[in-house]
Task: inverse folding
């Protein structure tokens, strides 16, 4: 028999605030609220009715991010996100100037091909020629801006229709474009996004490439950026998580328009996308409009999936034999920068769908708790560190469990050396394998996780949760994952700590303060 335990006040309020109830008074499941449809071309559509306000939150999420890139074009997903606001054959251009704009772009592309050829020479580059070519390109770009380009027309169209929260984002596994609109503007939204999917014109490509490289430079100016980049690259030696979303400077400064066109054709297509709409909508009427604008878009072949896996001890046990003696490989990255000294322990863990992920997630929350023994001891009592955190990723492919501590300094000197902090961190990591979590602490964390889960599904906020989970795995896993987290026991957490918290499954990062 299932026994309903008392819910915390925050959870009760959130539940009352958004969950509909059936005639019997039972809470509706997530699966009872989401209406899923799929067009013949593979476009998945998820709809949730939220009639409280005459608004609709719209997200078009593509299953593509930095993990889908390769050496030579790293950062292209983020770059592509920028370019999707530069217009189409009918948007972002002044009336009657399409042919003229095409000619400008033909000339610019031809000159930039010469620039790329000259820059690719290992020896004997003609700098004077390069300077002349770049000046010609700059002049053409300025003429194009003045004569043909209607800057930010897509943004303007949404704003005039009452749109808010207009933006886009690129991550390791997903690129999404989102806006909240009045319900009477839904047809405008579908028309614009279908146009952007099938008819993008990468105007201002090379000037925007300069913008992207400047974003990279701004990141490089942050103390510790290079250390974190190298730590990540060391941790993910084989997996395409190896590079950051922004990409390597040598790639983003040289990527070509044709490479972006080829990349778009591989990934930005109906069968690689999920369209999420949440708000005051009529599902049948919305689907009629979705079919009208997206139905004719073709999907050819299949978008390639990531197949490279990080060769961890668990990988060897799974692919060779459970009894295989995996090679012992322990890695360390040491850095210095004008930033807070820190020690990080990164452990390889499985992807989002794995049965061990709920226990790893809860273990991270328990280890990080400010009322837990680690924080109270290291931060409050001994005062060896100023912060301590632990967390498990929710990755589509190769995951990471991160344990980090920031060294405490007094009058410019560390209270204790970082190697002592590292030893203390390992003592708590080892303790997680043999000491059950405090039952009351675990229950409080479960209450918090429950409240956060319900809040993530409240109102139109459910759109983001659905889009992220569907791209990474399947949207139904939101509910499955939540239930699994609520069922985690102290024994489960000790088991996964024993399984994954080993030195040959770890990369250690030590950041020293540069004097």
Result:
């Amino acid at each position: 028999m299932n026994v309903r335990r008392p819910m915390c006040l925050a959870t009760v309020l959130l539940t009352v605030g958004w969950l509909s109830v059936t005639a019997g008074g039972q809470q509706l499941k997530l699966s009872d609220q989401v209406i899923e449809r799929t067009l013949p071309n593979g476009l998945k559509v998820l709809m949730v009715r939220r009639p409280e306000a005459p608004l609709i939150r719209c997200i078009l999420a593509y299953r593509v991010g930095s993990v889908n890139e390769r050496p030579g074009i790293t950062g292209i997903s983020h770059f592509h996100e920028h370019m999707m606001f530069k217009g189409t054959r009918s948007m972002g251009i002044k009336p009657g100037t399409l042919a003229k704009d095409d000619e400008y772009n033909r000339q610019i592309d031809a000159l930039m091909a010469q620039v790329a050829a000259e820059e690719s020479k290992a020896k004997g580059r003609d700098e004077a020629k390069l300077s002349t070519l770049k000046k010609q390109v700059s002049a053409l770009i300025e003429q194009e801006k003045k004569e043909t380009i209607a800057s930010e027309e897509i943004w303007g169209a949404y704003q005039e229709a009452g749109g808010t929260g207009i933006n886009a984002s690129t991550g390791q596994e997903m690129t999404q474009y989102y806006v909240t609109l009045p319900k009477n503007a839904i047809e405008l939204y579908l028309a614009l996004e279908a146009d952007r999917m099938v008819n993008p014109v990468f105007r201002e490509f090379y000037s925007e490439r300069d913008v992207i490289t400047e974003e990279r430079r701004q990141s490089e100016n942050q103390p510790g950026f290079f250390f974190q980049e190298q730590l990540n690259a060391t941790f993910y030696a084989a997996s395409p998580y190896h590079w950051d979303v922004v990409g390597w400077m040598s790639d983003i400064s040289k990527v070509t328009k044709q490479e972006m066109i080829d990349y778009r054709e591989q990934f930005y297509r109906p069968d690689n996308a999920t369209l999420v709409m949440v708000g005051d909508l009529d599902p049948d009427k919305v689907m009629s409009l979705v079919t009208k604008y997206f139905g004719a878009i073709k999907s050819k072949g299949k978008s390639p999936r990531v197949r490279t896996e990080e060769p961890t001890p668990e990988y060897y046990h799974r692919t060779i034999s459970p009894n295989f003696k995996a090679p012992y490989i322990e890695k360390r990255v040491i850095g210095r920068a004008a930033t807070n000294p820190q020690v990080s322990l990164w452990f390889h863990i499985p992807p989002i769908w794995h049965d061990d992920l709920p226990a790893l997630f809860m273990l991270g929350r328990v280890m990080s708790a400010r009322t837990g023994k680690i924080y109270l001891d290291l931060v409050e009592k001994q005062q060896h560190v100023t912060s301590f955190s632990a967390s498990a990723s929710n990755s589509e492919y190769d995951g990471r469990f991160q344990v980090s501590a920031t060294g405490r300094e007094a009058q410019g000197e560390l209270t204790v050396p970082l190697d002592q902090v590292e030893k203390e961190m390992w003592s708590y990591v080892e303790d997680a394998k043999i000491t059950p979590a405090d039952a009351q602490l675990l229950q409080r964390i479960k209450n918090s996780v429950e409240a956060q889960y319900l809040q993530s599904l409240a109102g139109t906020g459910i759109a983001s949760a659905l889009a992220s989970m569907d791209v990474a795995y399947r949207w139904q896993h939101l509910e499955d994952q939540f239930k699994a987290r609520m069922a985690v026991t102290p024994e489960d957490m000790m088991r996964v700590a024993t399984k994954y918290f080993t030195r040959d499954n770890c990369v250690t990062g030590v950041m020293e303060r540069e004097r």
